[in-house]
Structure formats: C-alpha cells, structure tokens
C-alpha cells in the first residue's frame, strides 16, 4: 500500500528550450492556456443550460514557428510522441497519432472561421495537467494552439471567438460533441473568480470565488475516454428527451414542468432529463450562494449535483462515489462532486482554509483499501485565462 501522491503546482517549463531541442531553432511564439474544473453544471452545457467553471493553475504550454516546407509537425514533450504530416491528411488521425487531432483540428478550424493560418508549422506541447482527470487538457491544448498559430500570422482573437473555435475543433475534428464549458472557462478565466456561462448565447460573465474557499482535486486515475461512446450516448439520450418533450433543448424545461411531463418519457431518457433540468437550477442557486459568500449552501449544491450524476445521469463510477462519500464526511469539506464528463476522472472538493495536505491524504486513505490505484491529489487555485506569453501578441486573446 503506497503513499497518496499530492501534486503541487510545477514551475512553468522552458517551452522555448524544449522547442529548440525538438526542432533545432528558436520558436517564434509561445502560449499557454489553463485547464479547468467544472465547478457545477454537469452535462448542462450542450443542453443549453448554465455552467460554472474555474480556470486553474495547471496549464498546457505550446511553442511554434512557421516552416518553409509546408509540413505540419507536432511534438509532445511529455510523451516524446512526434507526428509529421505533409499537409492536411483530409481524415482524422487514429491510433497512437490520435492526439494530433487537437492541433490539426485547430489549424483546420482557423480556415473554417476565415482566420489566417500558417501553411506549415512546427509545434511543441508540454503540460502539467493530468490527462484523463476531467480537467480539460484537450481544451487548453486547443486554445493555446489557436493563439500561437494566429500569432504566427500577426493576428489576434477575442476570448468568445477563441472559445468557439476550440469547441468547433473538438466537435468537428476530434469527434467529441462537447459544449462550450471547457473552452469558455479556459478562455475567460480570472484569478479569484469563477466563469459563468449561459450556454444558449453563449454569454460569459464571472462570479466571485471567496478568498477563503479552496479547491481540491482527487484524481482516481481512471482515465475517461469520452470519444469511446458513453459521452455521445448521453448526448443522444438528452436530445431524444428534449424532442419527446417538444422543446429544442432540455434547458427550456423547468423542474416543475418536467415533473408533470415525466410520464411521457421512457425511463432512461426521463432520468437523463431530470438530471439536466435540476442541475441547471442548481447552477443558478450556486451563483446566488457564491454572491452571498455562503460556502455551506454552495457545498450542499455540489454534493446534490454528484448524487444526481450518480443515480440519474449514471456517469459516475464506484471509485468516484467512494471519494465523494469519504470527503463529504469530513467537517472541513463543504461539498464534493465528480468534475468533468464523468465515466472516470476526478472528484472536486470545496473546502475552507483549514484543510491541509496531511488531512487531505488521511481523508481518502480508506480509498486504498478498496482500490489498487492511488488517487492523485491536487490543491488548486483559480487562474487567468489563455494568453500568448511571447511573440507578437503578448497581450493574449
């Protein structure tokens, strides 16, 4: 039985040095984008609802430079993987090269958005975001790549369009039917604030996050693979429920009306609809509680969100449920819930200032008795959004 691992914030990598090691010359631009914690609003985004997210102090960094031969070269510094393409392959990359669909999809999306893009470029990516933990390393990769490629062309982009472009890349070229939460939070992040997104617009604003509030992530290390079908299945079930109810999206239904109409829905779409409609209402309640500085009420909403994901949306796992049970039994924890798409990944806990690293380890130590893997623990802070860090447009998006 090993020790629980707590991952502290790392020093930013020397991404320019990494680029030089990969390609033998200096980069023309570097950019970074934060990961995000889905604070509350599980699967409400593509249903036209509202979500709350926190940009966090874990990042994806990229460095890039144009090349003269029109080739697309991607190098992952963390894995050592390298992809070289003579141009647009016209199809989605597969197998070990599938990670290249993120920068390739962004490059294609620049064309779709009628934005300038380099004909050929070399790009290095590095990150301290745990992959598969529900912290949206994919959206951060997309946004940092978009900023870097635009900067190579002397162009910039507003945060709302940056978020839309990243989502388009993921929907159309990666194959995940995600909503705007991940890219919107990474684009609009602000230290000391949460990002509120009305996904129907979409419209973006921020909500105060009390200085005394702390976010902890407990990563099960159960990697969730959203492209493998479960996410897409839930998306389809929600769309079927909305069609049966005669509305464009489930956010058009309020909890009272849904209860009256549940008999019209088959059992499974009915559970999915109940989760989404009630979760949308919980987001609004959480905004009001945070504006009042009421962390106790906020925590209750977080835990209620998890139970809804567990029993109605069925996108939790035994490992996630056990972590929530352990965390919500501790007096320093206001509430806890799975964060991200689910089907693996991580639990987020909202705590006060009193919780420390030793206590965090002790809370979840019984987890080791039930699961062979050790949860990874991250103590996070809210952070500013995606930006160019060196290059022509150091002001960022």
**What is the residue-mean pLDDT, rounded to a whole number?**
92
Number of domains: 2
**How helical, in percent, are the residues?**
25-40%
Distance between the ends: 46 Å
Overall number of strands: 13
Low-confidence runs: 1-7
The sequence of SSEs as H and E is EHEEEEHEHHHEEEHHHHHEEHHEE
- Envelope shape: globular
Number of helices: 12
What is the CATH C level class of the largest domain, in words?
Alpha Beta
> What is the makeup of the main sheet?
8 strands, mixed
Percent of sequence in beta strands = 15-25%
Fold and architecture overview:
The protein has 397 residues and is of the alpha+beta class. The protein has 2 domains: 10-208, 2-Layer Sandwich (Ribosomal Protein S5, domain 2), CATH 3.30.230.10; 214-380, Alpha-Beta Plaits, CATH 3.30.70. Helices cover 38% and strands 23% of the residues. Helix 8 runs antiparallel to helix 9. The radius of gyration is 21 Å and the shape is globular.
Summarize the structure.
The protein is an alpha+beta fold and 397 residues long.
Question: Which characteristics define this entry?
Answer:
Ribosomal Protein S5, domain 2; alpha+beta; 23% strand; 8-stranded mixed β-sheet; 13 strands; 397 residues
Write the SSE topology.
Blueprint: E1 5-7, H1 15-23, E2 29-40, E3 50-66, E4 72-76, E5 82-85, H2 101-112, E6 121-127, H3 137-152, H4 159-174, H5 181-188, E7 193-198, E8 203-208, E9 214-222, H6 230-245, H7 255-261, H8 267-291, H9 295-313, H10 318-328, E10 333-339, E11 345-351, H11 357-363, H12 366-370, E12 376-380, E13 387-390
Helix pairs in contact: 2-3, 2-4, 3-4, 3-5, 4-5, 6-8, 8-9
